[in-house]
Amino acid sequence: MISPRPSTSERDPHLSEHQGEVPVVELVEVSVRYSLPRRHPWQGPQSLLAVDRVSLRVDRGETLGIVGATGSGKSTIAKLVMGMQRPTTGSVLVAGRDLAGVSGRERLALQRLRQVVLQDPYSSLDPRMKVGGIIAEPLRHGVGRGRSGWRSNQSRVAELLQLVGLSPDSVGLYPHQFSGGQRQRISIARALAPDPELIVLDEPTSALDVSVRAQILTLLKSLQDRLGVSYIIISHDLVTVAYLASSVVVMHRGRIVERGPTTAVYRQPRHPYTRELLASTPGVSGTFLALPDRPASVGSERPDTACLYAPDCALRQRLGSPERCVVEEPELTTVSPGHEAACHFHAHVPELAEQLEPEACG
C-alpha cells in the first residue's frame, strides 16, 4: 500500500515555513509577451501578448480549471506554473517562493512540488524505456529524495503502479505494449513519483475514447481524495472540468474574463463569452444549445477595443452597441461571493438565456 503523504517539512526542510495558508502556486499580475519575426525588413519589432496581467492561486487539495478557446493563453499559464516560461512582468510563486529568485537545491525542491501530465499518452512516454525506468526517472535524478527513509526506487515504482490500477509486473514492458488509457495511467504514476503538491493536467483525456476517459477521471478524483494533491486542469472539455474542478477560470485572448466556484460559473455565468462557451457544449440529453446571432469573428488579431470581446459580443449587440465597451477596459468585478466577471454589463448577461434555449439536433 502507498504510504501516507508526508508533510512539506519532512520532504524538504527548506520549505517547512511555507505550510498553512500559503498557496501551492500563485501568479501575481503576470504578463507574457512573445517576440515575432518581422514580415518585412522595414518593419519594426513585432510582439504578441499571450497573457495579460493574470493573477490566480491554487491552494492545497484544490482543483482549478482553466478553460477558453485555442489561443486564449491556457498553455502559456501551464508553462509559467511549471517554470518552462518566464513572465515578461509579474511574479510566479511556488510554496511562497518567487521562481525568479531561487536556484540550486531550492529550485530542485520547488521543481519536485509540481509535475505535469500531458495530453497525448502516445508521445509523452519514451518508447525506448521500459515502464519501470519511466516512472523511476524522477527519483534517479534526485527529484523527490527529500523524505528520509524512502524504500528503494523499485519498491516505490511497484506501489505507484498499483495505485494507478496497473500490475507491478508491468515494469519490464515498453509503452507500445499498453493501450492509450494504460499509458495515461503510467504518465500519472510518473507524475506522482516525486510526491508532488501540484499536478498540471494538460488536456489529460482528450486523446482517449469516452469509456476510458471516464476511468481516468475517476482515477484522478480518487487520487486527490487519497493523497491531497492539487490539480490545475486545462481543457476544452467543459464537462471534464466540471467533474474535477472546484473553481474555474475563463480566459479570452490572454485575459481572465470570469472566475469563481465551478457551480456558480456554470449555472449563472456573468460574462457573455462564458455563456457562449457553455452554449457550445453538447447537453447530456443529446441536444445542443443554440448560439445567438452575433457579428463575424475578428480572427486572430487583437481588436482595437478596450474590451477584447466587444466585436464578438452578442450582449453588446443586444444593448445597442454601447460605446463604453470600446473605450473603457472592464475590470474583474465581484458579482457574488467568490465569483468575478470582467464585463461592464454583467447584470444583463442572464437576459441572453432566453436566446439560448435547448434545440433538438437534426
Describe this structure as you would to a colleague.
By secondary structure, the chain is of the alpha/beta class. It has two domains: about 20-30 and about 50-245, P-loop containing nucleotide triphosphate hydrolases (Rossmann fold, 3-Layer(aba) Sandwich); about 270-360, no CATH class. Helices cover about 30% and strands about 20% of the residues. It has an eight-stranded mixed sheet with strand order 6-7-8-3-9-10-13-12, with helices on both faces. Strands 2-1-4-5 form a four-stranded antiparallel sheet. A two-stranded antiparallel sheet has the order 11-14. A hairpin with a 2-residue loop joins strand 4 (about 90-95) and strand 5. Helix 4 packs parallel to helix 6 (about 180-190), helix 5 packs across helix 6 (about 180-190) and helix 6 packs parallel to helix 7. The chain starts with 7 loop residues before the first helix and ends with a strand. Residues about 1-20, about 145-150, about 285-300 and about 355-360 have low confidence and may be disordered.
